[in-house]
Design a protein that fits this description.
Length: about 230
């Protein structure tokens, strides 16, 4: 089976669910507990009905000493201006929704030119046909398993079939592309999500809402390993 080593599977805690009064400590805690990425949910109260964080928070975490990859999910419109701001602030991955950009191909190139890995994000009802002509410019495909805008929602089961479909597209493309899922991911369903093809798992309240981050992340990785 694909992805048969633990190194291929990444847990990405979403800091949207962290305690912002001590954000640096929270990020340190999840990374020390075994997390692989720091996931940023950037919302603009325009593309989605919520307002969260911007590049200054990313820059502050880098200044604080966070060295792990920072995975920025832009739920904003327009997109391009923030690409440069987040790249300068220390982002590693920058993903965006194709319908939020006037020219997705150009935005993908802009992200890579800025020195970051590029990603496209698909809402539950967004057609995957956007991928048809840009697979060579994408480093990450993120499937939303909830409607974007708020944390703590339940996983939409139809995402499993979409994961299987996109995994096939990736494998057939010959390109090295990560397949990420975001929304309602928890210990109880992460094995099923992994079996469908995901290799990068965003979890917010499922991690930050627990008392022991290390135990939670270890359980998640054990559940993934069981289906690899």
């Amino acid at each position: 089976m694909w992805g048969n080593t633990m190194e291929n599977n990444w847990i990405a805690p979403s800091i949207l669910s962290a305690d912002f009064a001590r954000l640096g400590e929270e990020v340190d805690a999840v990374l020390n507990a075994g997390a692989d990425l720091v996931h940023f949910d950037v919302m603009d109260n325009h593309y989605v009905p919520n307002l969260t964080i911007g590049p200054m928070v990313c820059e502050a975490l880098r200044s604080y000493g966070v060295e792990a990859p920072i995975d920025v999910h832009l739920m904003v419109s327009p997109v391009d201006r923030l690409v440069g701001d987040f790249a300068d602030a220390g982002a590693s991955y920058i993903s965006f929704h194709p319908e939020a950009s006037d020219h997705p191909d150009r935005t993908l190139q802009l992200i890579r030119k800025a020195g970051c890995k590029s990603g496209l994000v698909f809402n539950p009802a967004t057609p995957l046909s956007w991928l048809d002509h840009v697979m060579d410019k994408v480093d990450m495909i993120l499937l939303m398993s909830v409607n974007p805008g708020f944390g703590g929602q339940s996983f939409i089961d139809a995402t499993l079939n979409k994961l299987t479909y996109v995994r096939k597209l990736i494998d057939e493309s010959g390109h090295k592309i990560r397949l990420e899922v975001d929304g309602g991911v928890k210990v109880d369903n992460i094995a099923q999500i992994a079996a469908a093809g995901a290799d990068t798992f965003v979890a917010g309240s499922a991690i930050f809402g627990t008392q022991d981050y290390k135990t939670t992340i270890s359980r998640m990785k054990s559940e993934i390993a069981a289906v690899r």
